[in-house]
Specification:
Oligomer: heterotrimer
Radius of gyration of chain B: 32 Å
Structural class of chain C: alpha+beta
Distance between the termini of chain B: 31 Å
Largest sheet of chain B: 6 strands, mixed, barrel
Radius of gyration of chain C: 31 Å
Helix content of chain B: 40-55%
Structural class of chain B: alpha+beta
Largest interface: B-C, 67 and 58 residues
Chains: A alpha+beta (252), B alpha+beta (496), C alpha+beta (424)
Shape of chain C: elongated
Distance between the termini of chain C: 32 Å
Number of strands of chain B: 14
Number of helices of chain C: 14
Helix content of chain C: 40-55%
Number of domains of chain B: 2
Strand content of chain C: 15-25%
Strand order of the largest sheet of chain B: 2-3-10-5-9-8
Order of helices and strands of chain C: HHEHHEEHEEHEEEHEHEHEHHHEEHH
Number of strands of chain C: 13
Strand content of chain B: 15-25%
Chain lengths: 252, 496, 424
């Protein structure tokens, strides 16, 4: 959840900047350049928003609401608000992930084998969430064509992992040629079988940047499963005090 | 007593055997039966004691395993990243030294079938070598074992039932109609499918017990055509990060495969949440990126007998010696006992239930022999009186009877040992398949449980039982004889 | 030429003769009776032993795996290897309400709510364990967790109290993790909404159930606490229903099915794979039992053959005095019946006493297994079963088999020519 949030924000943001040029040119853009721009450094200092994660599984719907704060790429604080998870808080700081749970009434460090497990029932693991490496560093991109989507033409980037140890050896990105939104991506297993799908439902321009305010992720192995992400009340570069990202904030 | 007297007495005793032919036969039979059945039960109980251990050796671990030390330290986690290469050279050395070896790559994951999912431990094996070394391979309930080089797997029967793979043994009517009958493409096939099952009273159907192999194959193929046997193996390939020592990376993998067989063996470990597939189909990126790596090599002597636990040639020390030059330092060879950990708190001999049973049987046999001998001698009180009247001393009479009884005991023991061994031979070599029997006893559950049992040889007991029976017979002669000797000669002559 | 009167009188006369014969030779009688008594004793004892074993196996399954009747939702059943908590019984209906309704049914002793869920431990040596949320008070009223030592299975400390952040762990788990009472056990589990829940209970007790799977993997926490952590509302993941007696399971199964409604699996303990599997194993013991019967029967036959052989002269005498073959056989037969009854009575008395005493004291044993001991519901204690049924069966066996065993040699006696016999 965290990662893909950053993912989509970063992608849409920087692609937008160059989107205009690309739209005018309508040439085949350079794959590496596209990817590099996706990985471009964050162009905001802080972010805060109210988020929703809706898990649809086996005909049932599970709604999780949270409020999130982020500083750069490295620090973030998330607090859950829905009644079932109220009081659960996560703090990512200095490469470490901490959690506070009202059931345990103390702060616990998530490390080792715990990091490999799925985060709050989503399709991301904790490990994925705290990973900071860029796509360009891990993948070699190739432009494989374009596709006509509802909203217009999208460039298709095929990503091949540089190292054999990459979690998802192959990825495919669909980038809207006019808006620069990352409208879709697919994650593949080593054998080439498709494992997960991400689709952008709605993007908004906030403070001059594009945000995926509604998107969905599907784990194709879990039948009938779907996780929808929603972002509301997005505030960029607002003032967030340092204490937000402190241990004390977890414990209160 | 002079030697000649002893010899004379002995000869007399032997002649007495023929004189009271009926009695002799009765007493000899008592001894023979007791000895034979004691040997049988002892072999049986020993077999039972050993069975759980033999099952582990024959169906799970072999006599010994070669693994990396790092793997063994965490073996409960199935750390596939602690694998090693060079399995082929080691195998060649082992074969040259008279051992069978089977390489394996073990990993955990999830199996997705059309209808469901289940966590699974996957054993990537060499089908040919596996069949030679372990015994579960022939226990294919339906279908066949995977062939080398193919993306085929065999799953345990309990998992197959849950995942709705294979031929269901006891489906609900709804499942039968939609998935089984629904596989038939024409009337003839539908009739064939129906003929395979009988209806039960509780709304399920059961496979008819007398289906033959060809029919099962045909039904399998019919069902496979609907996609019932198509599965996906979801797992992560764990490997060490070359750049960050100590870190493990996980690569997501999804492999398409077909279930070709369902395993149902006497060891429940092979029947649930376990799958077997050929290791050579997983070597590249479409598989598990093995590149020749294995997590373990199983070892057994080529001429190993299933009825005994590994010993002698199959001890880790001997295997290591046979391997000649030491193993690479990161590898270690461990015997099967190291893999059973503290499951067996006591050794085979300590099974208290068996001990009590064999003691009870011993008492029963003891009484049987003693009782018969007692009666036989007691009723010859008159004869005893006669011998005394004719001048034999008490000790001579005693000796005569003891020798006679001892001879009966000896003959009975020899016959008993022969019979006992004869009964044991098929029990040890072939064992019995009692699964059908038990189903009658405890009812039909819809689980087909394969139950197979073998006795074990216990040479020490076999010989000892003969010796003890002989001594016992001889000793049983003493009390009645003494009683007869205590009586005045005249009274004993009148004894009826 | 015999009149009816004579014939009828004949039968009772024969029986009287037989009765008197028995007492004429005390030694022979004693030996025969002893042989039969011993055979009957072993028959009873072995049966009591084996029934005790079977009961022991089934008791473990019923205590831990299935209860007498087991209720879970269909969704749970589908993924049961994962112990999912997302599919509570009867769609999350109020557990207490369900329990109250079920306990009103006839023959139901108690309905116990239970939750089993996977926990990932923060400790790196033992990474996973099973959380077992139970109402300890209610459970102890119905179940015995350890048959040899304390009934409640506690080795040290106490069980967690309702609503407290406490737990009790298995003795083997405690050993593996190096934990003792007072230590904390940080863990993570997944809630009914697929959220991660973190819990850090204090260890207040260590238990030992003689059931390896539990001693090694299980952490006991209060049911209501786990229910809250997993956000199950008022529902429960499983219901274990216990009847007054295991034999009522089938009857209450149907009643319960009606109460919980569709979408749930209601099963009785006999439907469990392990029960079927282990009952099969007892076949091997029945073979041993059979052999015992054979040896015992041979004992009786041998004794009787000897007796008849001894009395050849007597038989010849009877024939010479005018008794028909049938009458001679009848006499021997009745003798055999009397001896059988006496012997069987003694055997029953001793066997009954032995199995009664045995039923009071548990025996700590190792069972026969087929491999993979940890996964099988095996406990290492049994009670020899004392049952009047077994004693009565032993009596019938004693009389019937002994009479049969004596009959054949007796028949042989009838074919002896009086002249031959008298000459011996």
């Amino acid at each position: 959840m965290k990662k893909q949030m950053f993912h989509s924000i970063a992608i849409t943001l920087t692609v937008f900047i160059l989107g205009a040029a690309a739209a005018i040119a309508q040439d085949q853009p350079n794959a590496m350049a596209l990817l590099a721009k996706i990985d471009a450094n964050e162009v905001y200092k802080t972010i805060s928003y109210k988020g929703q994660m809706i898990v649809d599984y086996q005909g049932k719907r599970y709604l999780k609401e949270f409020v999130a704060f982020g500083r750069g790429r490295t620090d973030s604080f998330v607090e859950f608000l829905n009644p079932e998870d109220k009081g659960t808080k996560y703090l990512k700081k200095e490469g470490r992930l901490y959690v506070y749970s009202p059931d345990s009434e103390e702060v616990m460090l998530i490390s080792g084998h715990l990091l490999k497990e799925s985060m709050m029932g989503s399709d991301m693991s904790y490990e994925d969430a705290i990973d900071n490496e860029t796509l360009s560093a891990r993948y070699t991109p190739a432009l494989s064509g374009s596709e006509e989507l509802k909203n217009g033409k999208a460039w298709i980037l095929d990503l091949t992992a540089k190292k054999k140890t990459e979690s998802y050896p192959k990825q495919k990105l669909w980038i809207d040629s006019s808006t620069g939104d990352l409208v879709r991506y697919e994650l593949y297993a080593l054998s080439g079988a498709k494992l997960k799908e991400y689709a952008l439902h709605k993007a908004q321009t906030i403070g001059g940047r594009r945000f995926p305010v509604e998107s969905e992720m599907r784990d194709l192995l879990r039948k009938g499963s779907r996780t929808t992400f929603l972002m509301n009340e997005v505030v960029l570069d607002g003032a967030i005090s340092d204490s937000k990202f402190s241990m004390r904030n977890l414990e209160r | 007593m002079k030697d000649s007297t002893v010899r004379d007495i002995a000869l007399m005793a032997l002649r007495n055997l023929g004189r009271h032919r009926v009695k002799t036969i009765i007493t000899t039979t008592a001894v023979a039966i007791s000895v034979a059945l004691y040997i049988f039960i002892d072999g049986w109980l020993l077999g039972m004691n050993l069975e759980s251990r033999r099952n582990i050796v024959s169906y799970e671990t072999g006599a010994a395993k070669i693994q990396t030390n790092a793997y063994f330290a965490k073996k409960d986690e199935l750390p596939m990243y602690e694998s090693f290469t060079g399995a082929e050279e080691l195998s060649a050395k082992l074969t040259a030294a008279g051992y069978d070896s089977a390489p394996r790559f073990v990993f955990s994951g999830t199996l997705y079938s059309r209808e469901g999912t289940a966590p699974m431990v996957f054993n990537a094996v060499d089908p040919v070598k596996e069949a030679k070394l372990l015994r579960y391979v022939p226990y294919i309930e339906a279908g066949r074992f995977p062939e080398p080089g193919k993306r085929e797997i065999a799953v345990g029967t309990l998992s197959a039932a849950k995942l709705r793979i294979g031929i269901p043994e006891r489906p609900e009517k709804a499942e039968f109609d939609s998935e089984i009958l629904g596989a038939a493409t024409n009337e003839e096939e539908a009739a064939f499918v129906r003929s395979f099952y009988t209806e039960n009273t509780d709304g399920t159907l059961s496979v008819k017990k007398d289906g033959n192999a060809a029919d099962r194959d045909r039904l399998w193929k019919l069902l496979a055509a609907t996609g019932r046997m198509t599965v996906r193996i979801s797992t992560v390939i764990d490997m060490k990060d070359a750049d960050k020592p100590g870190a493990i990376r996980h690569v997501n993998q999804l492999i398409d495969a077909t279930v070709v067989g369902v395993i149902n063996s006497p060891n429940p470990k092979t029947n649930a949440n376990v799958a077997y597939l050929p290791i050579d189909a997983l070597q590249d990126e479409s598989g598990m990126m093995l590149g020749g790596k294995v997590t373990e090599i199983l070892i057994r002597a080529s001429d190993a007998k299933d009825s005994v636990l590994p010993q002698g040639k199959e001890t880790p020390e001997r295997i290591l010696t046979a391997l000649g030059s030491a193993l690479p330092t990161e590898l270690a060879l461990r015997g099967w006992k190291d893999y059973t950990g503290d499951y067996f708190a006591a050794s085979a001999q300590d099974n208290v239930t068996s001990r009590i049973m064999i003691i009870m049987l011993f008492i029963l046999s003891f009484i049987g022999i003693a009782n018969t001998m007692l009666m036989a001698i007691l009723e010859r009180t008159k004869e005893t009186g006669m011998l005394r009247a004719l001048g034999m001393t008490d000790s001579q009479v005693l000796l005569a009877y003891v020798i006679e009884a001892g001879c009966i005991g000896a003959i009975g023991s020899i016959i008993g040992i022969l019979i006992g061994c004869l009964i044991n031979i098929p029990m040890v070599v072939y064992g019995i398949d009692y699964s059908a029997m038990s189903k009658e006893m405890s009812g039909d559950y819809g689980y087909r449980i394969v139950a197979y049992f073998r006795s074990a040889w216990n040479p020490l007991v076999i010989i000892l039982s003969g010796v003890v029976a002989t001594i016992l017979s001889a000793a049983s002669a003493i009390p009645p004889t003494l009683r007869a000797l205590k009586m005045p000669v005249t009274d004993s002559l009148r004894f009826e | 030429m015999k009149t009816n009167e004579q014939k009828n009188g004949g039968l009772s006369a024969l029986m009287t003769i037989a009765y008197r014969n028995i007492w004429r030779n005390g030694r022979r009688t004693a030996l025969c009776v002893t042989a039969i008594a011993i055979a009957v004793f072993f028959n009873i004892f072995m049966q009591a032993w084996m029934e005790g074993m079977i009961d022991g196996i089934e008791e473990v399954v019923r205590t831990y795996e299935t209860g007498h009747v087991n209720i879970v939702a269909a969704g749970f059943e589908r993924d049961k290897e994962y112990f999912p908590v997302q599919y509570p019984v009867a769609d999350g209906r109020n557990a207490q309400e369900l329990i109250d309704n079920i306990e009103k049914l006839p023959h139901v002793r108690a309905a116990l709510p239970r939750i089993t869920s996977y926990a990932t431990l923060f400790d790196s040596t033992v990474k996973h364990a099973l959380l077992w949320g139970i109402d300890v008070e209610k459970e102890l009223k119905v179940n015995i967790f350890n048959l040899t030592d304390r009934d409640d299975g506690l080795k040290d400390g106490r069980y967690p109290k309702k609503g407290e952040a406490e737990c009790a762990i298995g003795s083997i788990l405690a050993r593996k993790m190096g934990l003792k009472i007072g230590d904390k056990l940080p863990l993570k589990t997944v809630s009914a909404q697929f959220s991660d829940k973190y819990f850090n209970p204090t260890i207040v007790g260590v238990f030992e159930f003689d059931y390896r799977k539990y001693d090694e993997d299980v952490i006991i926490v209060p049911f209501d606490k786990l229910q809250k952590i997993l956000v199950l509302g008022q529902g429960t993941q499983q219901l274990f229903v216990y009847a007054d007696n295991a034999s009522w399971s089938a009857a209450i199964k149907t009643d319960i099915g009606a109460l919980v409604g569709k979408g749930n699996f209601v099963r009785e303990w006999r439907d469990n794979y392990w029960v079927a599997m282990l009952q099969q194993s007892t076949f091997l013991y029945f073979i041993i039992f059979g052999v015992f019967q054979v040896v015992a029967s041979f004992l009786i036959i041998n004794t009787v053959l000897m007796v008849i052989h001894e009395r050849i002269k007597e038989i010849g005498m009877m024939g010479a005095l005018g008794m028909t073959r049938r009458e001679i056989v009848s006499v021997f037969f009745f003798e055999a019946v009397y001896l059988s009854i006496f012997g069987a009575l003694i055997g029953c008395a001793v066997g009954g006493a032995a199995s009664y005493i045995g039923s009071l004291f548990p025996l700590d044993l190792e069972f026969f297994t087929g491999g993979g001991m940890k996964d099988m519901p095996i406990s290492s204690t049994i009670f020899i079963k004392f049952s009047p049924g077994i004693v009565a069966g032993g009596f019938v066996f004693g009389v019937a088999v002994s009479a049969a065993c004596t009959l054949i040699p007796s028949l042989k006696s009838a074919f002896i020519e009086p002249v031959e016999a008298l000459r011996r």
